[in-house]
Write a structure and sequence with these properties.
Elements lengths: L3 E5 L16 H14 L5 E5 L5 H4 L5 H17 L3 H14 L1
Parallel strand pairs: 1-2
Length: 97
């Protein structure tokens, strides 16, 4: 019998997008609770998500898009920029203007 793969990783629980954002650790907890309550969790093939290789990313994204993201990441690392905190700060500044 085939089963449905369920990919996640414990580091996903550290993903904080800011107050009020629906993508939050509590949402993942609610999903796990629902899978447990309904019994669906037992039918899943649970797997740890692993980082995708560049060739795997290219199955879903254009090479130029991947290159631009890698460039942004290098810039962020070099300038010690945190995307979540800094972007939310920029958005709050723009809302005040």
């Amino acid at each position: 019998m085939n089963s449905t793969g369920y990919f996640t990783h414990r580091t996903c629980l550290k993903h904080e997008m800011g107050e009020g954002h629906p993508e939050c650790p509590e949402r993942l907890g609610a999903i796990e609770d629902r899978l447990l309550i309904t019994g669906l969790g037992d039918a899943l093939d649970r797997r740890d998500a692993t980082p995708a290789s560049i060739s795997e990313l290219e199955l879903a994204h254009d090479r130029m898009y991947i290159a631009s993201i890698r460039g942004i990441r290098r810039f962020m690392n070099h300038n010690k920029v945190s995307l979540n905190r800094d972007i939310s700060r920029v958005l709050k500044i723009e809302e005040r203007d």
